[in-house]
Amino acid sequence: MKKSYYLFNPVRLSRKDNTLQFTPFDEQGNEAGPCRYIPVETVSDLYVFGSLDANSALYNFLGKHGISAHFFDYYEHYTGSFFAKEYLLAGKMQVAQTRHYTLRNKRVALAQKFIEGAAFNILKNLRYYHNREKDLAASISQIEKYATQISATTEVPELMGLEGNIRQTYYAAFDTIVAGFTMENRSKRPPKNELNVLISFGNMMCYAACLDMIYHTQLNPTISFLHEPGTRRFSLALDLAEIFKPILVDRTIFRVLNKREVQPSDFATDLNGCVLKESGKKTFVKAFEERLKETVKHRTLNKSVSYKHLIKLECYKLSKHVMGIEEYKPFKIWW
Amino acid sequence: MPITATHVNLYHVCHRELWLHANEVRMEHTSDTVSEGKLIHETAYPQRAERYREIVLDGVKIDFYDPKAKVVHEIKKSNKAEAAHLAQIKYYLYILEQNGIEGATGILEYPTLRITETVTLTPTDRSEMVKWLTNITVILNSLTCPPLLHAPICKRCSYYDFCYVGE
Ligand code: SF4
């Protein structure tokens, strides 16, 4: 099984025969600790949060093995990617995908599906905690009301507004779900408090995971339906992430906070806002990775699949939809 | 679109797979079966390279052709899709014939199963071939994807998840 690697500390990356050599270094550029060697065929992609020192020979080597590297800034905002040659892009799929973007009713229909899936999975989370003695009845009925309006929308901005309302109601319920942390308002750039930091960090991880899966299919990651293409370079990953955030990110947040795996001491506050310290990032990434690897029995495939694979299956369904093979039905958590 | 040997092979496996392949919906080529197949080619007959040449006729590439003995060689891993393998070789023989090379024969080998089969092109094959090629053209030009096969081979097909994922 190939694995994603997350690099938080400054590291020099080089090729050593058929392995990748990771050499940590300090601020002065001196070696700071033992090297690690990782066989190249076990690496699926790299997520770079700290500084990465590498030369073009290394990137050629990564490219040859289909390994992409994604880069993030200090606040974990995605800044760009090195993409291995886009070996799976297909002309016909791109044309079909573009047509679903340019024809308004086709685009709205798909965008609605993403919100529909997101709302369903959000409600699933709320009901789960509602059944565990947290009173979330008001939020649930409010979101249910919003959800009934999805199919009546005719424009994407209208749909985005609805989505905003759903999220706002949902995030407000986080205070009830996780004791000891408050949400106040959703703040992004930069996040103002611990919960907001975790949401931003988690959403970014989810975006990266979706991007990774899209990349392994023939879909073009820059052509999206709900989000305006160009919102971010790979806006299709934002579309897909809507569906998976409640299941992958929010559940992970509830877990690490309620089990006290991430503590207030894992955060630091500076002038600009709140940041997650390295200890906190590591804990969260580990929990998130575990979540991606967790498996469920798939209803129609008749076998167990990981959460990560569920994202890829979503890409398949989307491909089938744009190719006119089968209408897309968003993933709705069924257990 | 020129018809390739892969098209003829897939036509005998699954029309939907043929359509998906032709419409560039491909699965990742990280599959173990693919690399295993390559390895068999590379390791099974090291001396073969001397006799066999790669030739291209009408856009159809024959990997192993012995021009002296007029023999087409094809190596496969498992004989589960034997009809498709035979069809593929017959297509090679047909293309050779169309290009004025008469009386060529084929050898189909499954080294891991120690099975070797000789293949020739019969008059029945020739008329069948015309039918296959017409049907393949229809499928390749179709705007709609052929239905699911619902056959046991689906389980082993690289498109299985793609085809059968519902919700
Ligand atoms: S899974 Fe079955 S229906 Fe789909 S392409 Fe493969 S053989 Fe054909």
TrEMBL record, chain A:
Name of the protein: CRISPR-associated endonuclease Cas1
EC number: 3.1.-.-
Alphabetically ordered keywords of this record: Antiviral defense, DNA-binding, Endonuclease, Hydrolase, Magnesium, Manganese, Metal-binding, Nuclease
GO molecular function, one term: DNA binding
Biological role stated in the UniProt entry: CRISPR (clustered regularly interspaced short palindromic repeat), is an adaptive immune system that provides protection against mobile genetic elements (viruses, transposable elements and conjugative plasmids). CRISPR clusters contain spacers, sequences complementary to antecedent mobile elements, and target invading nucleic acids. CRISPR clusters are transcribed and processed into CRISPR RNA (crRNA). Acts as a dsDNA endonuclease. Involved in the integration of spacer DNA into the CRISPR cassette.
Record note on quaternary structure: Homodimer, forms a heterotetramer with a Cas2 homodimer.
Gene: cas1
Organism, as annotated: Adhaeribacter arboris
Biological process, per Gene Ontology: defense response to virus; maintenance of CRISPR repeat elements
Cofactor: Mg(2+); Mn(2+)
Residues reported to bind Mn(2+): E163, H227, E242
Top EC class, one word: hydrolase
Family: Belongs to the CRISPR-associated endonuclease Cas1 family.
Gene3D superfamilies: CRISPR-associated endonuclease Cas1, C-terminal domain, CRISPR-associated endonuclease Cas1, N-terminal domain
Xref: InterPro entries: CRISPR-assoc_Cas1, CRISPR-assoc_Cas1_C, CRISPR-assoc_Cas1_HMARI/TNEAP, CRISPR-assoc_Cas1_N
Lineage start: Bacteria, Pseudomonadati, Bacteroidota, Cytophagia, Cytophagales
TrEMBL record, chain B:
Annotated keywords: Antiviral defense, Exonuclease, Hydrolase, Iron, Iron-sulfur, Manganese, Metal-binding, Nuclease
Enzyme class: hydrolase
Keyword Isomerase: no
Pfam families associated with the record: Cas_Cas4 (PF01930)
Needed co-factor(s): Mg(2+); Mn(2+); iron-sulfur cluster
Domain DUF83, residue spans: 5-164
EC number of the protein: 3.1.12.1
Acetylation found in the keyword field: no
Primary role: CRISPR (clustered regularly interspaced short palindromic repeat) is an adaptive immune system that provides protection against mobile genetic elements (viruses, transposable elements and conjugative plasmids). CRISPR clusters contain sequences complementary to antecedent mobile elements and target invading nucleic acids. CRISPR clusters are transcribed and processed into CRISPR RNA (crRNA).
Protein's UniProt name: CRISPR-associated exonuclease Cas4
GO molecular function: exonuclease activity; iron-sulfur cluster binding; metal ion binding
Family: Belongs to the CRISPR-associated exonuclease Cas4 family.
Record GO biological process: defense response to virus
Free-text remark on how the cofactor is bound: Mg(2+) or Mn(2+) required for ssDNA cleavage activity.
